[in-house]
Amino acid sequence: PEMPVNENSKLLTIRHLLNHTSGIKYSLINDAQLYYGKDIIGQLKKIEFESAPGTKQRYLNINSQLLGIIIKRCTGMSVTAYTQKKLWGPIQMCSNGSWSVDKSNIEKSFCCLSATMIDYAKFGRLYLKKGLWENKRVFSESWFNESICRDTTEGSSYNYNYSWHIGLQEYEDFMAIGLYKQHIYISSKKNIVMVLLNDRENSLVAERVNWWFFFRQLVDQL
After folding, report:
1. Which of 83, 79, 82, 59 is nearest to 69 (CA)?
2. CA 45 to CA 47: how far, in whole Å?
3. Per residue in 56-72, pLDDT tens?
């Protein structure tokens, strides 16, 4: 209800947010306010659209932030509590995670979840096993298939779906990538999960490093 009401906002769906095809206009100022500001809900009033939802794909932090707000409204639980119930607890994470929040304790669901390398690897293993953990179902296989499928409808792209980067068919691989090039790489074919914790890369070095190639070279040796 905090979003401005117009023809585009009326067409916006959860799937558009999941797949970053919302059509919301990028704003550096609003992005900075989401990260550094103290009132995430207040930023929703400033949302503008540059295109109709479902016409083109562009990663935006606000898309993932809206998903976090939707989770809280639908479940009556904070994103942190819901994550604990649905993910952290069921797969028995080794360490407590931490999440950055605003002054109202609303999680910055587009970022800022701090976890250990082992726990990121556990999340990768959960996806490697298509939602199974020690023979217990954490999420449905149908969700796994939907989230890493190739979908070019409604403005989506061939190699990106639901925030996953989809790789090559011969490797059956896919990858999650963080802002500072943190990676969770998964090769279903070889039954391999790799985690890379990184930092902001030197721009020249970043041009020369293709992490897809690096991970696949390791996979080829195993």
Report:
1. 79
2. 6
3. 999 999 999 999 999 99
